Structures are given as C-alpha cells and as structure tokens.
Amino acid sequence: MTGNVVTATAAQARALGAPYRAGDLIGQGGIEQANQDQLAGHPSLTIRIEGPGNRLDATAARFPSAPGRPVTTSIDMRVQRAASQAVSTAATKKPVDLVAIQPSTGKVLAVVERPGGFNRALEGEFPPGSTFKVVTASALARTGDAHDEARCSAQPGDHRGQEVP
Question: What is the pTM of this model?
C-alpha cells in the first residue's frame, strides 16, 4: 500500500519530467507514487544566461528548493501492527489480504497483503463471500425472518442470489 522508493530509470525520469534524471530517488507504487510531488518537494533551480565560451553573462532567475511534505493517512499503527501479525502468522500458504475499515467513518485503519506485489487488497475485485453472511444474518434478524428451521438452497460455489425459505 505504501509503495517503495526506487532509483528512477531513464524512462521513469522522462515520464516525471524536469528536474528528474535517471538515478534520482522516486516513489513507485502506492502512496509513494501517488504523492510523489508532495513527498519529494523540489530542488532549487537557477536559470543562467551564458555568453560565448560558456561565459556566465547573467543569472535570470533563482528558485529556492522546497522540502517534501508528509502525507496523512487514516492508518492506525496499532491496528496495522495487529493486522500484520495476524497475516504473517496465518497457517495457510495461499495469498492473504486484510483490510480493516472503521464502519462508522469508512476510514481504512490497516491494509496487509501477503505475499505482496499486486495490490490485491485495494484493487482486486472479489465476491463478498463469507464476509457478507454477517450482513445477511443481520437483515434476517432485523426483519424477524430468522428462525431455527431457516435454510438456504444455495450449493457451495453457487453465487447466484437465493431466497431463504
């Protein structure tokens, strides 16, 4: 989610434009790339007028450098650490993604992905699966339609909407 800081290739530097050059540090992926300008700030720039023989005739303008500015997120480090611990100790060898959201505000409190790479947790598209059972059960309880004999006729792997008798 945060991305990485990497050394820019010539193609990446060209895509970012001046003043970036191959070898400069740039953000790649996630928050680092999305907020490159804010996080990097900008270097000082001097525009000089040169005469014959590369002789400096005048300085046309000077622009001061500006430091990068922090990016504020809704990530709660206490929740992020707990999520990281839960994912890193998961007994499965399959990819594991965890996104913790504060329901009352919609703020993302933690995001963890294993093994990493493709941003599955935030950009992947998956059916709601078992997480939606909580919503279904709450709706049944609220309407009074839940009872001990209630059954669902859907079979494992059947994602079509089914009525609960």
Answer: 0.54
